[in-house]
Automatic annotation (TrEMBL):
One of its GO terms (cellular component) is mitochondrial inner membrane. GO terms for biological process: calcium import into the mitochondrion; positive regulation of mitochondrial calcium ion concentration. This is MCUR1 regulator. The gene is Mcur1. Belongs to the CCDC90 family.
Amino acid sequence: RRLYFDTHALVCLLEEKGFTTQQSEVIVSALVKIMNTNLDMIYKDMVTKVQQEIALQQVMSHIAGVKKDMIILEKSEFSALRSENEKIKLELQQIKKQVTDEITKVHADNKLNLNLEKSRVKELHAQQDRALTQTDRKIDTEVADLKTMLESHKLDNIKYLAGSVFTCLTVALGFYRLWI
């Protein structure tokens, strides 16, 4: 159980490295105590072969008892649990089918609503496009009318200007002729 080593050789080695004899002996003594304490702790956790065989027999007897209990439970309780499990499986399948049907119905309703909204949005866009086109046409017509009116006024102004210039020239020529 004990670990033996040459303590005198270790003391001599420590003395060669510069320790005094008293220091070397104290260090070796501390190492021996530490090692003995560690070995005692290790050996406390260990079991002998006889103890191990007894524990193994006890475990095997417990396992045999559990096997007997399991066989009894399997014959009585497990059959009840299996039948209950089958009932729950059937109920779950029915619920699953109902949920699937509801999901399909909601999906179809949502698809229909989405298509209706798309149609409404398209119609609204078409109305807005028509209104925008009509507004553009009105603006273009008004601009064209304004351009025509501007050209008409420009021509009238040119006529009046030309008439005024010719009138002034005629008057000026008349005065010029009178002077000459």
